[in-house]
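Translate sequence into structure tokens.
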Amino acid sequence: MKKIGFLSFGHWTPLPQSRTQSATDALLQSIDLAMEAERLGMDGAYFRVHHFAQQLASPFPLLAAVGAKTRKIEIGTAVIDMRYENPHYMAEDAGAADLVSGGRLQLGISRGSPEQVIDGWRYFGYRPIKGENDEGMGRRHAEEFLELLRGKGFAQPNPRPMFPNPPGLLRLENARRDCVIESGGGLLPTRQQHGPRN
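Result follows.
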């Protein structure tokens, strides 16, 4: 065996016999679980993302907190449904979590799977473009996200900015460049070794 880690769905339920009664419990217990997994010598702490369910749904604050409380364990997702994501915000949020963790973030993303509600992504403000289905929209969001991670400038700078701009088109500065690759229907982590972001 090369590596071992855990995947948590972060379920909670307010039933009397549950030790995870709320979203607060699920988040704080996830941090504790990752810390203990690292202490035991495990290699990875991964969290599933499910919307419209009593489970973990917003991964980046949790990943940043886990990254701040651990030193060696790889942290990441398995998987983020890209139909629900704004690629620009996601690139910045993932970049911030990666910086906090010292470069240990590994993302698993997908173009979608069966979900709790019908067309749940619509409640997040997303619609497929003409001639595109929801799977195609997820693929498009993933491609936009991957392009942002490549670090090329794309935004025209303001001629009268609040702060001085470097020359040329601007990019998202916190975006990580090496966290995912496409594999089959989904996207998987690429980095094999931990280390600070370049």
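Note: The helical segments are 23-39, 59-69, 87-101, 134-149.
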